[in-house]
Amino acid sequence: MPKFFIKTYGCQMNERDSDQVAHSLIARGYERVAKETDADVVLLNTCSVRDMADQKALGKMGMLGRIAKERPHVVFGFLGCMAQARGESLLKNLPHVDLVVGTQKFHRVADYVEEFVARKRAVVAGVADPGHSRMDDPRFSIVDIAEEPGSQETIRDQQLASRQATAFVSIMQGCNMHCTFCIVPQTRGAERSRSIDEIVREVRDLVARGVKEVTLLGQIVNLYGRHGIPKIDNKSPFVQLLEAVHRIDRLERLRFTSPHPIGFRDDLIKAFARLPKLVEHVHLPLQSGSNKILKAMHRAYTAEKYVDLVRRIRQARKSIAITTDIIVGFPGETETDYRRTRDLVEQIQFDNAFIFRYSPRRDTPAAEMSEQIEESVKEERNQDLLRVVNESARRANERLVGRDVEVLCEGRSKTNPARLMGRTRTNKIVVFESDERLAGEILEVQIQQANGFSLYGTPVLPTSRASKGDHVRDRTDSPWRT
Hints:
Blueprint: E1 3-8, H1 12-27, E2 31-32, E3 41-46, H2 51-63, H3 65-70, E4 75-80, H4 81-86, H5 89-93, E5 99-101, H6 109-119, E6 123-125, E7 140-141, E8 166-170, E9 172-173, H7 184-188, E10 192-193, H8 196-208, E11 213-217, H9 237-246, E12 253-257, H10 266-274, E13 281-283, H11 291-297, H12 303-316, E14 321-328, H13 335-348, E15 352-357, H14 375-398, E16 404-412, E17 420-424, E18 429-432, E19 442-451, E20 454-462
Helix pairs in contact: 8-9, 13-14
């Protein structure tokens, strides 16, 4: 039986795409392995949002060259956003690479793998190289980031892992926002949304297989359907979708990521107050606390509007956790601009945040801007802001010590296989000791210790109630009472 290995870089969308590739290969008789040295096919699913992600993938593939020398039959391939952006140049610079498959061709990866194995030559699919014409090489297949039939379909007969508790569901592809720092519109294309009925069928199938929590995915998830699905009763297509998924029996939890502040209208805020399966967590990218920088980023909101949005979300759902993304060192960011970001982060007190140093992306407006910031300044601001975020995250976690919280057990901890891990409704990681048969179950855990970004506790009583939030037993108030 041939074996394959996939390493995924980047976002949850990439994780979902890797799952799709894995299931298609398994359906062809391949076996997934945990080490690239055991595989006959090695695939890296790449991200191009930041330079570091590019460099990690390129470095990893470079190191895999030694395997190619020792085992010349192994197929090596790049998938995803970097493949879409860099195209055939990846074949030229890394001679042992066989496949370069773009973002609209994940459903064809198994075909390309088998074709390469059979024909013993490279296959380039779904990528764009400005200096290369598709007429020059019959191996070159391009969809110009338009939707190819099948590219968003889920493999319905996939065999989920035993007692899998959570699943990602892609509801749309692409982005029309054109933030000046972002390469996603080039790699993922324009917004395209699946139908509500199709998404509901997929979630219902996942729940029938034992999944208790689904996360709806989109580049800007809360702008789902805005170009093709009409409003009903003044509810956006995204809220209509949330309601439809919420009605699915035996689904316990519903999440989504990543939204844009401009897509958070009143109907979505109210949904948190009235849909109990919608968990108490919002990941709400801020990017900067300076209005000057937000305008240069083409973010279409102000710091003041962002703060007001956070206030309204917290008012709608008690004890909701809010996390964010922030970029430091964007071109033209002065010390005053950075201080405004820092002050806003102090004011909001996020449960967690991902802090990124700005890295220029080819063919994006920000890469051509003047006043690029020195790397040393970016690093200093990055470390300073991390300290602020870590302190607010520590306080948020310590508030849970001594409380009983609802946890969905996802299985063994990756860092300590002797223990189990799960997530609260507010997306906090909880590690605990118990019987592995609890994997896939919802239970209560008493938090005894907060350490960094993880919580440690002891199981109390299993529970199937979904509508409890992170505060249970010692609380009489409902977490969605407004």
